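re: the backbone from monday

yeah here it is again, tokenized this time
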């Protein structure tokens, strides 16, 4: 039977990997109908339950039902029926009772997970989320890695906090990056990264990625580009030793960011030229969005404010198109931090502060941040 997860903090509802944001009363109406499925309620009864002590008209119920149907139309196992002359009823149907032969066909499973891997390489979070939402209809099982990765690119902090199907050590890496990526890297966040590196709780691949890439970018964002510079030789050695081609562009982007923060403009320009060449051959959306944003930061350093703003916005739009919500939030944080280094740009500061506030509100970042920090402290304190 189709099963929904309700996040009352953010007025969102989740089915599989698909999260739909609702208004407060839409959320309350859906939850009431879901909790009382297969029962028929009049408009008066729904007004009583969902709008207590308020005085809306019956048309209010009809409008909210219309909007719910529109927002949830992709969920074929859920239907809100109109009972003519009476009211409304919600029913659920079993959408996975078919025993898809493909569930037991290794060739199909390998092909689907090959698609996930390819979409991840190309930076197409939009394609990953869309594919994940079709697992019941298409008859495949997602690996635990892609179950978490799908939520990660969407910056779904609430899901990670409430998830009980995966052990804490399996979630640690993802939740650490969610913490450092959604509000700028503080001294506390940096200390958590350093503790995680020596905790022995991360897998070998996660420990390697945190050491050679994530923590170096965290140093830069924390205003310590010299520490990132010190760690770069190890990064390059490990990349060559382990043949890590997929790290070439992310590390180049981190290095460009490092030189921009340190105001080493010639070196930043060299990295920019290298990245232009790489992206012309492999225009991966995730890296393309981040590069455009970094190029905007470079123009900001030179005083070309109009073109800087245009490129920063193009980068954010590209990340949005690719459904890279976490990277979009991180990019806005980096823009805001960089503006403080480059003089007084009050209009830009106000613009990107407003963008961050919208992202914060849409993803409930401030709301979940204390719980996320407590979770990380608890896990790392036992390491």
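seq for it, each position gets an aa:
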């Amino acid at each position: 039977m189709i099963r929904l997860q309700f996040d009352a903090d953010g007025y969102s509802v989740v089915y599989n990997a698909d999260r739909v944001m609702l208004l407060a009363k839409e959320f309350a109406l859906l939850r009431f109908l879901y909790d009382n499925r297969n029962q028929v309620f009049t408009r008066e009864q729904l007004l009583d339950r969902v709008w207590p002590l308020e005085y809306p008209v019956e048309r209010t119920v009809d409008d909210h039902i219309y909007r719910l149907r529109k927002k949830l139309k992709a969920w074929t196992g859920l239907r809100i029926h109109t009972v003519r002359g009476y009211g409304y009823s919600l029913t659920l149907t079993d959408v996975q009772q078919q025993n898809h032969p493909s569930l037991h066909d290794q060739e199909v499973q390998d092909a689907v997970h090959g698609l996930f891997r390819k979409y991840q390489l190309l930076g197409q979070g939009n394609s990953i989320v869309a594919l994940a939402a079709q697992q019941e209809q298409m008859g495949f099982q997602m690996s635990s890695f892609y179950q978490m990765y799908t939520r990660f690119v969407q910056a779904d902090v609430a899901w990670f906090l409430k998830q009980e199907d995966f052990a804490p050590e399996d979630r640690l890496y993802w939740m650490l990056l969610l913490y450092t990526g959604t509000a700028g890297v503080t001294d506390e966040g940096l200390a958590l990264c350093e503790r995680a590196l020596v905790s022995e709780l991360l897998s070998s691949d996660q420990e390697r990625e945190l050491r050679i890439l994530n923590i170096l970018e965290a140093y830069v964002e924390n205003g310590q580009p010299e520490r990132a510079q010190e760690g770069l030789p190890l990064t390059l050695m490990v990349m060559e030793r382990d043949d890590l081609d997929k790290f070439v562009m992310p590390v180049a982007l981190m290095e460009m960011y490092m030189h921009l923060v340190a105001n080493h403009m010639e070196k930043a320009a060299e990295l920019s030229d290298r990245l232009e060449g790489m992206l012309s051959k492999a225009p991966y959306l995730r890296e393309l969005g981040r590069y455009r944003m970094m190029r905007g930061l470079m123009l900001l350093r030179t005083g070309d404010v109009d073109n800087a703003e245009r490129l920063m916005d193009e980068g954010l739009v590209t990340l949005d198109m690719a459904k890279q919500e976490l990277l979009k939030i991180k990019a806005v944080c980096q823009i805001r931090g960089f503006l403080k280094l480059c003089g007084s740009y009050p209009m830009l500061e106000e613009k990107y502060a407003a963008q961050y506030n919208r992202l914060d509100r849409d993803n409930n970042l401030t709301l979940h941040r204390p719980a996320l920090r407590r979770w990380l402290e608890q896990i790392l304190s036992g390491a």
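The chain has 19 helices and six strands. The longest helix spans residues 204-221.
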